[in-house]
Specification:
The chain has about 250 residues and is α+β, with helices and mostly antiparallel strands. Helix content is about 25%, strand content about 15%.
């Protein structure tokens, strides 16, 4: 059965039961072991591979040319801030967390990156709809990490769709487990960065990112996805969970 490689996007014949697909050329490039038969589900994965688990249904974003050093990440985000926000930034003093395996994207959050400014930029770059209007700074006042306390950087997994491991996991469960997941400002900077980097692509086409690191003023949890040609910000109860609503893990 014909399939599309999750890494390069080319047409291939190798498809795993979990949904992961890879061509032999990308397998060679990422030191992956191909299955002996199409029914094989387990794959031996080299630690340095950008896909951290091929025995789960995760989709690699397919972005080429990711920086590999802290200096390269700072250079890319310096250019992004100049191109998109017309801001000249100095990122030299911001610590970039270590990559503990599979967290291949770096996001920088700076003091001027308020939710309102990020949301305004999203609506300029592409259509957006917020269930709570455009004053997100007022509607969503609480975050596990806040640029009001200073600039910082986080690492996230390079997935188009939100993390598979968080399906059917509510924000309350994530808090009880003391897990570190994406905030709304982090999701709102991730979208324009990815759009800029990929020449117009979007995230969360099939899933919804539960921004479990943030809370609306009434205690509800923001959620973000791309649907019907627009970026949507909506909400859910902290106790709500389903298969398509998933948090995104971050390293701080």
């Amino acid at each position: 059965m014909r399939a599309t490689c999750n890494i390069c996007g080319g047409a291939v014949d190798i498809s795993y039961p979990t949904g992961t697909k890879v061509c032999k050329w990308c397998a060679m490039a990422h030191n992956l072991v191909l299955p002996a038969a199409l029914t094989d589900e387990k794959v031996v994965l080299a630690p340095e591979s950008r896909i951290y688990a091929l025995d789960r249904d995760l989709t690699y974003a397919g972005v080429t040319g990711n920086p590999t050093t802290d200096a390269e990440w700072r250079a890319e985000w310096t250019q992004f801030c100049k191109d998109i926000f017309h801001e000249n930034v100095d990122l030299s003093g911001i610590r970039i967390p270590p990559n503990l395996g599979g967290y291949d994207w770096v996001l920088f959050l700076l003091p001027w990156m308020t939710q309102n400014r990020l949301w305004d930029k999203c609506t300029v770059l592409f259509t957006g709809h917020s269930q709570f209007g455009d004053d997100l700074d007022k509607s969503v006042p609480t975050h596990e990490r806040d640029v009001a306390n200073g600039a910082y950087a986080v690492r996230v997994r390079p997935n188009v769709e939100a993390d598979e491991e968080f399906k059917n996991r509510s924000a309350r469960w994530i808090a009880e487990q003391k897990l570190t997941t994406m905030t709304l400002p982090e999701r709102l900077i991730l979208e324009p960065w990815y759009h800029w980097k990929t020449g117009g692509k979007h995230l969360d086409i099939q899933t919804i990112t539960l921004c479990a690191g943030s809370r609306f003023s009434d205690g509800f949890v923001p959620r973000v996805d791309w649907h019907d040609g627009e970026l949507r910000v909506r909400w859910r109860s902290p106790d709500y969970a389903n298969v398509g609503l998933r948090a995104r893990s971050v390293i701080v």
